[in-house]
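<goal> How does this chain fold?
<sample>
Here is the protein in question

***
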Amino acid sequence: MNQEKAYFHHCLEVEECTEGLIPRRFTEKQLTHWASLGEVRSARARATAGITICFTTSAPEIRFSYHVKCVCGEKMSFEMYEGDHLTRSVTIPSNTREGSVVFERLYCGEEGKAMPVTIYLPFTAELALSHFEFGEDACPVPEEARTRRILWLGDSISQGMHASHSSQTLVALLQRRFNAEIVNQGVGGAGFKDISDDFTYGDFLPDQLMILLGTNDTGPAGSDWGHYSTRLTHCLEEACRILGPDHIRVITPFWRADLYKPEIGCPIQRILDFLREEAGRLGIPLTEGFMMNPRSPEYFWDQRLHPNDVGFAAIAEALAPRLN
């Protein structure tokens, strides 16, 4: 069981249950916080966004079973990389409560020679995984193979909602770009208004904390700026206290196509200005996410806010050099 737990990357812990192993990207205390905000937020926080299964093997076929605990989307995407190449993809309806995923290897290499395999798990479901059949010579990839450890706080854009493929979300693209152990704590609908200010992560001590929040805060920022700005400042100050400003980077919210609406554009501009001000005051590096995404509707799933796969690729390409 311990070796099977070691297969999982980009998570904080792996929980055992009767149906198998559940990889977690939040601590139990943090999950309790999200549960207090309702079933929808709780399901999104429990989804396996950004979590991968990594190992080396020479087996020609990869197989494992899944049991769906809860869902936050209509489809589940499982994808396999062999080395640096995406070779297989499977999409399954989320109402398929249990089943098996089978991948036939494309690159088996020389007979008896193991090579790295990475399986991306869905960002739309909480899964218990079991019956791992990865080959007799399967061996977990050690976390030490990654160059750095990053904790990523965000909303639905970070979680990957509305991407078509689990390996093509923003955080997944940056995981590969940086060869980093990134724990994706993106939760659809989240903002500074409601994230947990518990910046402790069990045994996971990040080299860097990325914060990409604010686009969901137009309501509270518009209706009660005093309360909202105090909350935002508290989050940044608490992160600085625990990790230090040099280990934090704030990314401002991305451009969105509905900024012409006063109830959206005015509070977003106020949030952008305040983030710049507070990051400067606290000495936190800031990246202008607002300038990073294409301003054409074909790059968005909904023509205004949520990137599609092509949109995520464009954002990652623009953002990556500015995060080093």
Summary: The chain has a mean pLDDT of 94. The chain is about 30% helix and 30% strand.
